[in-house]
Amino acid sequence: MISPGGFESNMYLVNRELLIDAGTGLHPKILVRELHELGIFFEDIKRIVLTHAHFDHAGGVHLFKAAKVGIHKDDAEIIEKGDNSGSMANMFSASLKKKPVDFMLDDGDLIKSGDLKLKVIHTPGHTKGSICFYDEKNKILFSGDTVFSEGFGRIDFPGGSSNEMRDSLERLSKLDVNMILPGHGAPVWGSGNETIKRLLM
């Protein structure tokens, strides 16, 4: 877990070559330092998968020149067009750089890295194309902005929906989840299922 702080999203490095989310890209020196402490350079990252297209998760993809970028098909246009409104980049007084999407993700897809398999789960509510990544073997959910330790992502942004968020949480509540690794804030250790179900009360 790489957590630069502030409004940056958490980033998760998997097997030294796959990155889940990429932060804003506004603080590259901090990110360089964090990666170098792990013995990783930007060019070592070969793939980035984004939980959604908001700037605090996707703005940093341009820093990783060697990486192929994947995102759910419903959020892909925001990245490809550099949509400052759809990405909420304007909230950061920033601009989202256009970036071709190398592979579109859809519900049920599998992302493999070494012996790890992450299942793509489409969880709209925060954005139309929000997704989580589920490691069934280890009972780990990379939840993006769908689930936090004490709540869920905002539903009042463009593409947000309270009904879709509730449906997504209902779906996640049926998974066997021990650990939640969210897009912001602290991880949830050992009580993933209880955390998700509590949000539905």
How do you describe this structure in short?
By secondary structure, the chain is α/β, with parallel strands linked by helices. It has helices at residues 28-37, 55-58, 76-81, 162-172, 192-199, and strands spanning 12-14, 18-20, 47-49, 68-72, 103-105, 110-113, 116-122, 131-135, 140-144, 179-182.
Structural description of this entry:
Helix content is 19%, strand content 21%. It is globular. The chain has helices spanning 28-37, 55-58, 76-81, 162-172, 192-199; strands at residues 12-14, 18-20, 47-49, 68-72, 103-105, 110-113, 116-122, 131-135, 140-144, 179-182.
Q: How confident overall, as mean pLDDT?
A: 95
Whole-Å distance between the termini? 29 Å
Poorly predicted sequence stretches spanning 5 or more consecutive residues: none
Task: Output the CATH topology.
Answer: Metallo-beta-lactamase, Chain A
What is the number of beta strands?
A: 10
Strand order of the largest sheet: 1-2-3-4-5
Radius of gyration, taken over Cα atoms and rounded to an integer in Å: 15 Å
Residues in helix, %: 10-25%
Which secondary-structure class do the elements indicate? alpha/beta
- Report the β-strand fraction as a percent range: 15-25%
CATH architectural group? 4-Layer Sandwich
**Can you tell me the CATH superfamily?**
Ribonuclease Z/Hydroxyacylglutathione hydrolase-like
Question: How are the elements arranged and paired?
Answer:
Blueprint: E1 12-14, E2 18-20, H1 28-37, E3 47-49, H2 55-58, E4 68-72, H3 76-81, E5 103-105, E6 110-113, E7 116-122, E8 131-135, E9 140-144, H4 162-172, E10 179-182, H5 192-199
